[in-house]
Amino acid sequence: MKIKYHGHACFTVTSNNYSIVLDPYKGVNGFDDVCLSANEVICSHEHFDHCYIDGVKIIKSSNNPFEVKKLSCYHDDANGSLRGNNTITVLSCEGKRIAHFGDLGHDLDESLRNELMNLDAIMIPTGGHYTIGPKEAIKIIKDINPKHIIPMHYKDGNKGLEVIKELDEFLSLIPEYKDRMLLIKGYEQEVEL
């Protein structure tokens, strides 16, 4: 399974020549609008910076090797009353399980924690304001203990939404997990699990 980071919260996950784009964006400072090709698109919610499906050309294929599980949660810590719902997407393939947290805005309840144990990789927001911030992300990481961590939805100089935090605070608070970090500011780079 390969994971490629396109910036903000957008990734392409590929296995056996089948690809899924997660959370394609448009209008995010410092990034060109997404222009990708894939077999499928999954969006965590319908905001412009996570649901630009017109930016993904769909390639027809019936050879989908992924098992997809969608976990309902919220975009804020007020049961969705501020920013609505969010979906955590869990993809399973090749004996691996990964999760994309979308714009998670709250701590995990016991049910979500149980669903998200034993993951090979997580893509987790760290920028705060619209999502969980560095401290909340670290608590979740310690609770579910994934093998690999890919931070997303952070500001990087002129890249990213103006009001969210830079990645440095998150990284400084979690030095013991340094060897588990993948794709740190690795725009258009890919890792294989």
Q: Can you walk through the features of this model?
A:
The protein has 193 residues and is α/β, with parallel strands linked by helices. It has 3 helices and 12 strands, in the order E-E-E-E-E-E-E-E-E-H-E-H-E-H-E. The chain has helices spanning 110-115, 134-144, 167-173, and strands spanning 2-7, 10-15, 18-22, 36-38, 40-42, 56-58, 67-74, 85-93, 96-100, 121-125, 149-152, 190-192. Strands 5-3-2-1-12 form a 5-stranded mixed β-sheet, with no helix packed on it. A 5-stranded mixed β-sheet has the order 7-8-9-10-11, covered by helices on one side. Strands 4-6 form a two-stranded parallel ribbon. A hairpin with a 2-residue loop joins strand 2 (10-15) and strand 3. Helix 2 crosses helix 3 (167-173). The longest helix is centred in the last third of the chain and has 11 residues, at 134-144. The protein is globular, with a radius of gyration of 15 Å. The model has no long low-confidence stretch (mean pLDDT 96).
Amount of helix: 10-25%
**Average residue pLDDT:** 96
Quaternary structure annotation: single chain
Beta-strand residue fraction: 25-35%
| Strand segment tally | 12
For the largest beta sheet, what order do the strands appear in spatially? 5-3-2-1-12
Main sheet characteristics: 5 strands, mixed
Uncertain runs: none
Overall, the morphology is: globular
